[in-house]
Design brief:
mainly alpha; two-stranded antiparallel ribbon; 6 strands
């Protein structure tokens, strides 16, 4: 029994371990995250029960706890109440103590009760899957039977896989380092454009921009392996996608701003800001800064990042640099002001539709009178927006 029932070589055990841990990643991203926490898809009962069993064996996590903590993270993101924000707690603590932060949040019973609605509550969940350590102990026994002595190492890898990659890397680096496609109201970043190792969760900025989307990739060059698995399950009739992030439709013949325009701007506001950053801020920053500065492309990129940032999320150094940029260029100050005014339109949740329409009409009219060509062109293109069907 020293080699186990499967009698595999060391490299075969290594490959098997990577496959097993990848199944765990898929269970977390497809079942826990996209299906349970955000209701972006529904899974066939057989698939759901497999994922629940697998997560019980390989992580000991309880569905209602994970879902509640994740929903609370979205509700309190980058605040003192966020269970695992590196912006508040520091990157080292979240990276290396992510599992401890998760356990601390799981002890808050009021939090779990409030945010765990809609999660499984059947006999298996209450009497089997809630027995946290029995599942991982059973996994250890199974691994030793299958792989022999090496089964202990396989089990150890399985036990640290999710605490490191999900609790540490995604919750840590995913709010600290990387690139941003969208100006989500937090510090979420895309760690990598190829979401393979962590099931697509690497595209964390895309997720925070569109939390209820089953698909995490947004650009044509990004790849979300979790979405690939969802499409396979859907093809087999084992999953049904409920929501994905849709881009606004462009009606080239449309010249007036009506309620459809307002709806498109509000619903697709992440794409509106992304287009504003690309079509207005970037070219204007390059044109302004390259007049007098060397290494202008690099400086223009830095300026663009600051001009597209939420000022509340900037530290004192970044805020001082932003103010310096705005003081040196009236054109950039105008572009920045119009970006803020545009955001205010969809933040007026209590405003009537007629008032929102009037605000957008006024914004476009004044933007087209600024004499800044990029801003004028963007305003005219905004008139053509239609909500996606």
């Amino acid at each position: 029994m020293i080699d186990g029932l499967l009698d595999l070589s060391w490299w075969q055990v290594l490959v098997t371990t990577l496959v097993l841990t990848h199944v765990t990643i898929v269970a977390v991203t497809v079942f826990l995250h996209r299906a349970q926490a955000h209701r972006a898809l529904t899974l066939h009962p057989l698939v759901s029960h497999f994922f629940r069993l697998w997560l019980w064996l390989t992580t000991g996590m309880i569905t209602r706890e994970w879902v509640a903590i994740h929903r609370y993270h979205h509700a309190r993101c980058e605040t003192e109440e966020d269970p695992h924000s590196p912006q508040i707690l520091g990157i080292d603590k979240v990276m290396w103590e992510g599992a401890e932060l998760y356990r601390d949040a799981a002890r808050k019973h009021d939090l779990i009760e409030r945010y765990s609605h809609g999660t499984p509550d059947d006999w298996l969940e209450r009497h089997v899957y809630s027995l946290r350590w029995q599942g991982v102990a059973l996994m250890l026994i199974i691994n030793v039977l299958l792989f022999g002595v090496l089964g202990v190492a396989v089990w150890a890898v399985q036990m640290i896989w999710i605490p490191f990659w999900a609790a540490g890397v995604i919750n840590g680096l995913g709010h600290y380092w990387g690139y941003r496609n969208f100006a989500s109201p937090d510090a979420a970043t895309n760690i990598s454009p190829w979401g393979i190792l962590i099931g697509g969760e690497e595209l964390h900025n895309n997720h925070h921009a569109f939390p209820s989307s089953a698909k995490l990739s947004a650009k044509w060059w990004e790849f979300d392996i979790g979405w690939m698995y969802i499409r396979i399950l859907a093809f087999l009739g084992l999953a049904r996608v409920r929501r994905v992030a849709l881009k606004p439709l462009i009606d080239s013949s449309k010249m007036s701003i009506d309620m459809d325009t307002v709806k498109a701007v509000v619903v697709h506001r992440m794409y509106v800001l992304a287009n504003y950053a690309r079509e207005v801020v970037k070219p204007v920053a390059e044109a302004e800064i390259c007049r007098s500065e060397q290494h202008c492309k690099r400086l223009a990129r830095q300026a663009s990042r600051l001009l597209n940032s939420d000022e509340k999320g900037l530290d004192s150094v970044a805020r001082a640099r932003l103010n310096e940029i705005l003081e040196k260029s009236q054109v950039l100050a105008t572009v920045y002001q119009y970006r803020e005014r545009l955001e205010q339109i969809w933040k007026r949740t209590a405003t009537s539709q007629e008032a929102l329409l009037q605000s957008l009409q006024e914004w476009c009219r004044e933007a087209e009178a600024t004499g800044i060509k990029a801003l004028e062109d963007f305003s005219r293109s905004l008139r053509k927006y239609q909500p996606a069907v």
